[in-house]
Amino acid sequence: MCLFCDIIEGKIPSSKVYENDKILCFNDINPVAPVHVLVVPKKHFDDIRDMAAAEDGVEYMGEVIKAISEVAKIKGLDAGFRVINNCGEDGGQTVMHAHYHVIGGVKLTEKMI
Ligand code: 5GP
Ligand code: ZN
To answer: Does 99 participate in catalysis according to the annotation?
Structure first.
């Protein structure tokens, strides 16, 4: 069982922002900024390494960046935003289905890098 696969299949409700045949984007349940959207491949990959190893991982990654751009447009993030991918235990990943956080709607000041 994977939480995001259940959301993709509609078994668990989500607040959808954008969708196409390969990607689902929905609002994070615990937002850290006025805009906090999760960009999720509809195919299950454990993390970014799993995507890289898969035959169609690069294709999905291309769809991810296009979806990020769509989300930014829909949410009016013209002044910019941040994209975060937590990978694996040390990266702080808590849902083991590859996903990308799009965070914005405010000037982001807390920079690690
Ligand atoms: P991670 O920590 O793996 O990078 O990110 C997982 C994200 O999923 C967290 O920001 C968390 O708030 C979000 N999340 C966890 N469960 C749910 C849920 O049931 N619905 C939604 N919309 N977001 C969730
Ligand atoms: Zn999954």
So the answer is: yes
